[in-house]
Design a protein that fits this description.
Chain lengths: 74, 241
């Protein structure tokens, strides 16, 4: 296989973690909405934790994107 | 058309070289200087004439202060009060870097791993030294959580040590990668607008408007996450679990 083609395939494979991150983010959003729906007064307390977990999970997708970009252009 | 990675290029403004080391005043250094001057000027002007009923600027400055103060109260407790200036400075410098980067033609200095790694490593080294000063060699119990069965200890301790040593890497890469990927995405979509012509080009443009709003959220959120993780690391050193 040519090096260029192998690079493109590797860059695509490096993006596979997005699959898990998508599931994880969906779970975070759904449980946050469910919790606030059940107890609207807890929204203030949950907001901070929600944003923290959201950012931590989303960062994994960004890591994958950076690895992919490094394979493509690096 | 410039490629989307062009925005991250560091160009020297005042070339300087001392003893073979390149210490030019670059655009990155210029934006850092702007961030420091702007944030200091803002805080000084906002708190110059403190009023009982605060005006808009004083209100904003007080809100920022209270935001970090409550973050330290919640995460470290009352013993964290003496570290307030450090945490506040970290928050402001990261927030200014992310927000100034959203200006058109601006340079985002937090999108370079050299800058974020510098910040993260200085926090990491400070926290480690602080832990040794506060607890001496007792600090090593941080790697051995209480209540772990003897049989599991050979497994847990290397994992704990690794997860401690990887902290500066994840802290810096999270910030740098978020800022870089976000700005890259904005420029790629702007490139679509140019490439698709006037009639179809408005579609990516509208998408870009939404993305810029999202980028502002991310810019604030990443500064928040960077600060709160520094708080948590500091708490580990002060309290040892």
């Amino acid at each position: 296989m040519e090096l260029e083609a192998a690079k493109l395939i590797a860059a695509a494979i490096a993006l596979l973690p997005m699959f898990g991150v998508g599931i994880g983010l969906g779970m975070i959003f759904s449980s946050y909405n469910e919790a606030v729906g059940r107890n609207p007064s807890s929204a203030d307390l949950l907001d901070k934790k929600f944003f923290l977990t959201f950012a931590l999970t989303e960062a994994l997708a960004i890591f994958a994107l950076v690895v992919s970009l490094i394979i493509l252009f690096g | 058309m410039a490629d989307p990675l062009h925005q991250f290029e560091i160009t020297p403004i005042i070339p300087l070289e001392i003893a073979g080391i390149d210490i030019s005043f670059t655009n990155s250094a210029m934006w850092m200087a702007i961030a420091v001057v702007a944030s200091m000027a803002f805080m000084m002007i906002a708190t110059r004439k403190p009023a009982m009923v605060p005006g808009r600027m004083q209100m904003f400055a007080e809100n920022m202060y209270e935001f970090i103060a409550s973050m330290i109260r919640d995460n470290i407790g009352s013993r964290g009060r003496e570290y307030f200036p450090m945490i506040f400075t970290i928050f402001v410098i990261v927030l200014m870097g992310n927000m100034l980067g959203m200006l058109p033609y601006a340079f985002t200095y937090t999108s370079h791993i050299a800058v974020t790694m510098g910040l993260a490593l200085s926090i990491f080294i400070f926290v480690t030294i602080l832990g040794f000063i506060k607890h001496g060699f007792h600090f090593f119990t941080l790697f051995c959580p209480a209540g772990v069965p003897w049989a599991l200890k050979p497994l847990i301790i290397p994992i704990e040590i690794l997860s401690y040593l990887i902290r500066p890497v994840t802290l810096s890469v999270r910030l740098f990668a978020n800022m870089m990927a976000g700005h890259l995405m904005l420029k790629v979509f702007a490139g679509f607008s140019v490439g698709m012509g006037v009639a179809l080009g408005v579609l990516p443009m509208f998408f870009n408007v939404a993305l810029i709003g999202f980028e502002f959220l991310i810019a604030f959120l990443q500064a928040y996450v960077f600060t709160i993780l520094s708080c948590i690391y500091l708490k580990d050193a002060i309290e040892l679990h």
